Amino acid sequence: MSACPETERFAALLRSLKSRSGLSYEALARKSGLAGSTLHRYCRGTSVPQDYGSVHRLATVCGAAPDELRTLHRLWALADAARAAAAGAEAGAAERGAVSEAAGGTEPDATQEAARDATQEAEPKAVPAGEPEADAPTKAASAPAQGPAPAPAQRPDRTPAQRPALAPDDDRAPEHQAPGTGTGAVSRPARRPRRNRLRATVVVAAALAAVTVSAWALSSGRSSSGDGEGNGAAGGRSTGEVRPLFSAGCPPVIAMGEHDECVREVQRLLHAKGADIGVDGDFGPQTLRRVTAFQVLAGLQPNGVVAEPTKKALYTSRVRMRVWSPQKVRQRVREVFPEVPDKAVAIADCQSFLDPLHILPNTNGTRNWGLFQISDARLRELGGTPRAALDPEWNIQAARKLWSRDRDFGDWPHCERAADAPRSPAPKRT
Question: What global pTM score does this model have?
Answer without folding.
Answer: 0.52
